[in-house]
Structures are given as C-alpha cells and as structure tokens.
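Researcher: Please predict.
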Amino acid sequence: MAAGETGASPVKSAVRTVELLEFFAGRPGMHSLAEVQSALGYPKSSLYMLLRTLVELGWVETDPTGTRYGIGVRALLVGTSYIDGDEVVAAARTTLDRLSDETTETIHLARLDGTSVVYLATRQSDHYLRPFTRVGRRLPAHSTSLGKALLATYPDERIRELLPRELEALTEHTITDRERLIEELKVVRERGYAVDREENTLGLTCYGVAIPYRTPARDAISCSVPVARLTEAHEQRIRETLLHARDRLALATRHL
C-alpha cells in the first residue's frame, strides 16, 4: 500500500529542507546560523548539518567567512524552469507585449498562491518614472489590484476563511478590514476590474483583471502607473485596454 494511502506522516527531513529554503526565499541576503535557528526552531546541530548539505548541493550559499547563509543558484534554476514550462505564461506573451505597447506602462502577470500573489511575468515601462517588480516576488493579495481581481472570483464566505479579520497595512491606504475589502470586491465583480490606489506602494496606482480560463480564477494581469503620470483620460484608456486584453487571454487560455 502506498504511503499516501496509509496516511503516513511527512518525512521530517524533507519538511525541514523545504521550510529552510522558504525561509531564505522570503528573506533576501545572508543570515547567521543563530538567526535561522531562532526563526525555525530546529536543533542547532541538525540545522548545521542540513545547511552544509544544501551548500554542497548548491541550494544554499555562504559568505566568504562560511558563517552566513543565503539562497543558492539552484533555486533560481528550478524557479526559471517553472516559468519556462508554464502554459499560461506562454499563452500570455503576445497579449502582454501588446498591452505594454498600447499603454506604455508596466504590465504584470501574477498567480494567486494562498493569500498572496506571485509575479510570473513583467513588461517594464519605458518611462523615467516606472515601478519595478521582479518575477518571483510575492505580495499580499488584499493590497494589490491583481490579488483583488482574483479574490473577487471567490464567494464571500471563502474569502472569510482565507483572510484574517485584520489585514496587513503596507501603506496608509491599504484596506486592513476584511469586511471592507469584501465590500470592495463586490464592486470589482460588477465592473470587471480591480484598482489599487497606493495600497501596496505609495505613488503607484494599479489596475487588474482576472483571466477567466477557470473559476475561481488563478491568474491575473495588471497595469501599474505612477500617480504623477495618471490623468483621467489615461486611466480610462488603461481600463479599456486591460478589459480587451482579458478577453483575448480568455480565448488564448480556453484550452487550459
């Protein structure tokens, strides 16, 4: 009988390895053994041996002193292979390029992962004032237009299960009350797009739409514009262009 059929417990060493890599992925830079041990609570001796093993395999790197640790290059290779092999990313390339040309602003494709969105593709604006978001970055769904567009495809009760009553504030404009967020998501459903007005980054407004190739939606696209460059006419053009891009992507991903 297979392990899954017996309800067997996860392999402790495998769980610790994944948790360790996720620790480094969420905290850029180098960290001491004491820092890692304090955060994860593993016995220091077994943590040290696990770190040394991952260093030898290339998943973790050390500084010149050999006493501080950070994510290794093999993690990048695996992450890149995920992007390269993703069917939605492939299907969206032409639409993202066209959206970038038509709006002249920064365009993102992201995926909902729990209560966060992870960026899968980006097209940078040519303007001097432009936002910068790298592929692989993770942000709270409630503070982004991408995340709100995706959360709006879920029933209210499911959102209450996913999110705590009090939400993290990334700026003074972030919606931190779950019920207030749910009220905004009702508006998102009605008009078909979400807006983040400096809720994630001061000085930046973003518009997002979910790609409806599955329900609830998993992926969304957005357009980010510095407030200094946002006029009423530009805002209307961005909204219309995004909705047209959503319709094109709905066709391009209908087989997925």
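Model: Confidence is low (pLDDT under 50) at residues 1-6.
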